[in-house]
Input
Amino acid sequence: MLALGGVTLQNAESCMHAGAAGVAAIRLFQENDIATIVRKLRS
Output
């Protein structure tokens, strides 16, 4: 199950704690440097 819709850096961790296997944060990735976002999400 993926978290979809309204995912931000601020709430991505909450999505994972709620049981999501990952996030589909299209706007987050489109509007920012992908490598930076992935690094922040993994930390």
